[in-house]
Structures are given as C-alpha cells and as structure tokens.
Amino acid sequence: MPRRLRLSGSRNRGAARYAPRGLGKAVGGIGSGLATMAARLAQPAPAPAPTYSGGGGSGGGGGTGGAYDYSTDATYQAYVRALDLDEAQRRAETTQRRAYINADRDRMLGETALAGTQQREDIGGAFEDRGLYLSGGRLRDQARSSANQLMREGRLRSDAAQGLSSLDAELARAIARIQLQRQAAQYGVFQ
Q1: Which helix (DSSP H) or strand (DSSP E) does residue 5 occupy?
Q2: Cβ atoms within 10 Å of 129's Cβ, excluding its own
Q3: What distance in Å separates the CA atoms of residue 40 and residue 63, rounded to the nearest whole number?
Q4: pLDDT in tens, 83-132
Q5: DSSP code of residue 91
Q6: What's the DSSP call for residue 64?
Q7: Type and span of the H or E element at 67
C-alpha cells in the first residue's frame, strides 16, 4: 500500500504525492538524481518528431528519427558518471587488495625461509653436540626439514594465487554488472 508523502514549501502546501514504501532508503544514498530519473521514466516518452533521412528526395532534410536520445539527458549523464565512479573505485580497491595479498605472501615466505634455515642449523647443532655430525640421520632430518619448508612455501604461494584469482573474478563480475547497467541505461532502463 503506498503511503502519502507531503511536500514542503509554499507552492506545494496541501499537495500530496504517493511513493512506494522504502523508496527514500533506496534513493537516499545516491541523491535526488535517481528520484528525478524515476519520475522521468514514469512518464511516457515524448513522441519523436517525424524526420526523414536526407537522401536528396522531396521529403525535407533531417536526421534519422527514432527513440529518445538519453546521451543528452543530464540525468542519464549523471547516472553514467556514477557507474564510471563505481567501476574506478572497484578497480582501485582490487589493486589495493592485490598489493596487500602480495605483500603478505612475501612477508610470510621470508619468515618461512628464515625459520627453515634456523631449523636446519638446529638439527646440525644437535647432531654435532652428540658427536653424530657426519651421520646419515642429520642429513635425513635436514632433508625432511627442507622438504617441509618447500611444502609450506608452496601452500603460501597457492593460497596467495587463489586469493588473487578470487579478487580478479570478483572484479570481473562487478565490471560486468556495471556494463549491463550502462547498457540498460542506454535503452532508458535505469537500475
């Protein structure tokens, strides 16, 4: 059920408009541009003036005629600018998140390499203290430590690559949605 909204101002005293519930919440974040746009879309499109293609015939000059040209509409231009801004913000955010993931990966790889080196030195020192430095046990334990370090590094790289691909997929979906909204706006359907 639509609710009554009273408009303020001296010219509109006593006038009432109807709007669906929740319209203020949907429009409030973007501004009055969407409200103006919605009001324009609620009205029937103006009938285009009959024009004829200028082929040299006896019909008068002119353009091609057709649907309303939204490219000159200020509301359409504001909507497209908002879409462009949204796309630019999403790209900047993705770039920032990619840099964070890469920096975190590099930091963790450095820590893992340092811990692996320390662990191999500890293994060598423990075997030397027992007088078994040249034994096969030390070589086996150090090789196992190196293999574990390589597995940890591989997991870190894999997790980072998965995070980056997830970011790229999220960005691609957002850009595709923005492109669809832009195409819909070209046909006069604002979302």
Answers
A1: strand 3-6
A2: 9
A3: 24
A4: 999 999 999 999 999 999 999 999 999 999 999 999 988 988 888 888 88
A5: H
A6: -
A7: none
Are the beta carbons of 33 and 79 closer than 8 angstroms?
yes
- Segment holding 83, helix H or strand E: helix 74-129
User: d(Cα 70, Cα 77) in Å, to the nearest integer?
Assistant: 8
Which phi and psi (to 5°) does residue 45 adopt? Answer: -65, 140
Q: Which candidate, 77, 84, 69, 68, places its Cα nearest to that of 37?
A: 77
Cβ atoms 152, 110 nearer than 8 A: no
Sign, CA torsion 78/83/86/91? negative
Please say whether the beta carbons of 40 and 68 come within 8 A.
no
- pTM confidence score: 0.55
